[in-house]
Specification:
With 131 residues, the protein is of the alpha/beta class. Helix content is 35%, strand content 19%. It holds the Pfam family ECH_1. Belongs to the enoyl-CoA hydratase/isomerase family.
């Protein structure tokens, strides 16, 4: 039907590292070029949609890699949020922090499962999410 399913498969929690961001951005580009009629974003994990940013990317980073990481992160969110085709996050597990932002960047969100959490845990720490 022209609708693509993109499945996050970076065990154990689909944390967003540079390589995943590069691959996902390339996938979004491919879907745009193929004139996809829609995309469903989900997770291969039965309990975690995405835990958000990979903490190891920010721990003692090399300056060239961290610049590329942040640039690719922003590029991915802008492409997902501004895609020409409808996007749906099929949230099949916990989705804190950057995982929540990933879901929020989609046009529609559906959360399934017995009892999962979603949200910006930064707000509990008093950190204001950027615009």
């Amino acid at each position: 039907a022209g609708v693509s399913t993109v499945t996050l498969q970076r065990p154990p929690v689909n944390s967003l590292n540079l390589e995943l961001l590069q691959e996902f951005t390339a996938t979004l580009d491919d879907l745009g070029k193929s004139k996809s009629r829609g995309m469903i974003l989900t997770s291969a994990s039965p309990t975690v949609f995405s835990a958000g940013l990979d903490i190891l990317e920010m721990y003692r980073p090399k300056s060239d890699r961290i610049r590329l990481f942040w640039s690719k992160l922003q590029e991915m969110w802008l492409k997902l949020y501004g895609s020409a085709y409808p996007t749906v996050a099929a949230i099949n597990g916990h989705s804190p922090a950057g995982g929540c932002l990933l879901a929020l960047s989609c046009d529609y969100r559906v959360m399934v499962g017995p009892k999962y959490t979603i949200g910006l845990n930064e707000t509990q720490l008093g950190i204001i999410a950027p615009r």
